[in-house]
């Protein structure tokens, strides 16, 4: 029987690339996001893989619950949960920060991850197996100027990842985080509210990580033998040494 991976934020970037990579690895997939067209396109692309689409906003705990409870029998047994949905909203000094941006980052990156995990973990506990991968960030390991609340949200993911691993120890469920540095996705377009020129500049003058690079690492992580847990992995492109030091030409 195929293993099932549940991917939040599968409609673009790292989540989408992970869906494609895991399909090649023989997984069947629950693809989550808010943009139906993008998820349907992905399902069409993955037409040889069993997939199920779940449309919900991770911020809404009732929607999260309803969506996960609506899974058809064939997709209910989740082997791998990839907590990937998330974004930065804005890049401002703390004093200029926008409260709606702050709400979005805390509600999506932190509370959304909690709601999804809380709904999926009980069935993993019953089966005494499962694997949770939390997508953190280098922004969860260090704080950079104007990163304030996004960095706080990713530091929270780092803490939640550790907390989950401690509390789920001995239950059969393994937990680990992957913390990417700069990855060329829709991330900066969202951060800069659709300003494509500003978004593109983030990735100019060096070779940033691509979503596929992270997807391949996720594939490696989920295909290790049961006794091997990659607990916390930071990945940067070669040009990046820290959040603020990037060798651009
Ligand atoms: P993208 O913007 O390409 O993808 C973000 C995904 O999250 C989309 O599929 C989006 O789906 C989903 N999402 C956003 N908000 C919500 C919401 N409220 N409810 C449900 N789904 C939501 O960015 P990335 O692929 O780069 O980002 C994926 C993860 O990787 C994020 O957690 C991000 O913080 C992290 N990361 C990214 C890095 C980068 O440089 N790109 C580096 C380090 C970490 P939809 O809009 O359809 O809802
Ligand atoms: C995304 C990477 O450096 O833009 O988490 O915060 S960064």
UniProtKB/TrEMBL annotation:
Organism: Mesonia ostreae
Domain of life: Bacteria
Protein name: SDR family NAD(P)-dependent oxidoreductase
Keyword annotations: Oxidoreductase
InterPro entries linked: NAD(P)-bd_dom_sf, Sc_DH/Rdtase_CS, SDR_fam
PANTHER family according to UniProt: ALCOHOL DEHYDROGENASE
Family: Belongs to the short-chain dehydrogenases/reductases (SDR) family.
